[in-house]
Amino acid sequence: MITRRIAVVSAGLSNPSSTRMLADRLAAETVKALAGHDVDARVDVIELRDHAHDITNNLLTGFAPPALESAINSVVSADALIVVTPIFSTSYSGLFKSFIDVLDPDSLTGKPVLIGANAGTARHSLAIDYAIRPLFAYLHAEPVSTGVFAASSDWGAAGDDVAPLAKRVEKGARELADAIVRRDVSASADPYDPATYLGEGRSFGHMLGGLAGE
To answer: Which has the closest alpha carbon to 85: 75, 76, 98, 74?
Structure first.
């Protein structure tokens, strides 16, 4: 069984937080979905609240202290990301954006991302699509189509919204697992096979106007 690494970025400010609760549920469901593909998953969780001062210092000095550098390396080297932020003033939190700002702009290129967000009311659910998704599109990451939003009412012990949240979590996790598997297949292509960079059935003779075949 192959092993893939998932970095989970939680931008909750309190401890415990509903942001971390949602992040943990997304991670657990993704691990379960990957197991169905015979893929083992290792999960690294980064609590941004633990790095808040270091993130600020990095923005000011351009240097990451060791603990933050380790967190950054976990994110950029992961096979996929799960990111969850609380919604403040109709958008992602300042701590979340500050962490994204200390990453190399090209470090997330092509990386599958599952986006999660939470707020007190479902009125903020569209923030995933108008604020967070464009951020990762700008960084050339590949967010899966389902974003998972959780309002305070979703965490009720027996509320009507519990089952729909579970379904959203399952759907988003399944899409992320599928994206990881697809990326594995793509990455396994032989870089020295001309078909990889010229196209299937083509050769250098095609580039020379067919002279090789004459």
So the answer is: 98
